[in-house]
Amino acid sequence: MVQFLLLLLGMISPLYATAANRPTNIFILAGQSNMAGRGGVRHHVWDGIIPPECKQDPFIFRLNAKLTWEPAKEPLHKDIDLNETTGIGPGMAFANTVLNNDSGFGTIGLVPCAVGGTSIREWEHGTLLYNQLVNRTNVARKGGGRIRAILWYQGESDSITRQDATSYEKNLKRFFTNLRVDLRLPVVPIIQVALPSISYRYDDIVRQTQGGMKLQNLLYVDANGLELQDDQMHLTTQSQVRLGKRLADAFLQFQSS
Ligand SMILES: *[C@@H]1O[C@H](CO)[C@@H](O)[C@H](O)[C@H]1NC(C)=O
Ligand SMILES: *[C@@H]1O[C@H](CO)[C@@H](O)[C@H](O)[C@H]1NC(C)=O
Ligand SMILES: *[C@@H]1O[C@H](CO)[C@@H](O)[C@H](O)[C@H]1NC(C)=O
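Above: inputs. Below: predicted complex with 2-acetamido-2-deoxy-beta-D-glucopyranose.
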C-alpha cells in the first residue's frame, strides 16, 4: 500500500512541478558574452534563427529578470544582458540534450546571469554581478529545486593584458570558492568552458588556467576549434549548439560516474 502511494506520488510530482512552474533541476548560466549568447547576431541585430536543438520544450523553464519562471526560449539572456543584442547561447541546446538523454529527468530551470564584456574582477565577491548571481540562484531554489550545476564561460576580458591573464587563476579560484560558500553548496558541480584560442593576446594563459584548475567537482569543456563569427570573438549559432551538447555530455558523464 505504502509502495503504491509512493509510486503514485512519484508519478504525480513531476506533473505538479510542471504545473507549478517550479523546476526540479536548476542550472545556473554565468560568465560573459558567449554564455549570454551572440549566435546569429550581426551589427547588433539577431537573425532570429532557432535551430531545432534550441527549441522550446514544456519541461524547460527560465528565471526571468523579474525573478519568475517562464517557458524558456531564445534568446535566454535577453532581459539579463540588457545593453547588448543577445542571440543564441549554449543554454537551450544544453537543456534539450540533457532531456533527450533521460526522459525521466524532470523539469529544468535555467537561470541566466551572464553579462557581456565582464572581467573576473567584476564577478568578485560583493560586486553587483556576484550578488545578482547569488540572489537569483537563491530565488531559483526556493521552490524546492536542486542546483545541479553552474555553467561558466568567461575569460575573454582577462586575456587582453598579461597582468589580468596571470592573475586569472587566483581570481577565478577565489570566485568559485566564495560562490560555493555563499550558496552553501560546497561541492556543487561547476562546468567551465575553456576559451577558443582566438585573437586575444594572452588567451593561452587563460586557457591553461581553465583546463588545469583543480577543484573538487570542477569540470571543463573546450571551445577551441569551434567556428567563430566574423567578429572573431563570438561563437556562431551552430558552434553554440555544439558547445551546449558538450556541456551536457560533461554533465551527464559526471552524473553517471
Ligand atoms: C548597462 O549600461 C549601464 C550604463 O552604462 C550600466 O550602468 C549597467 O550596469 C549596464 N547593465 C548591464 C547589464 O550591463
Ligand atoms: C546518457 O548519458 C550517459 C552518460 O554520458 C550515456 O552513458 C548514455 O548512453 C546516454 N543515454 C542516452 C539515451 O543518450
Ligand atoms: C541581493 O539580496 C540582498 C539581500 O536580500 C540585497 O540586499 C541585495 O540588494 C541584492 N542584490 C542584488 C544585486 O540583487
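The helical segments are 2-19, 33-36, 91-101, 128-141, 162-182, 203-212, 237-256.
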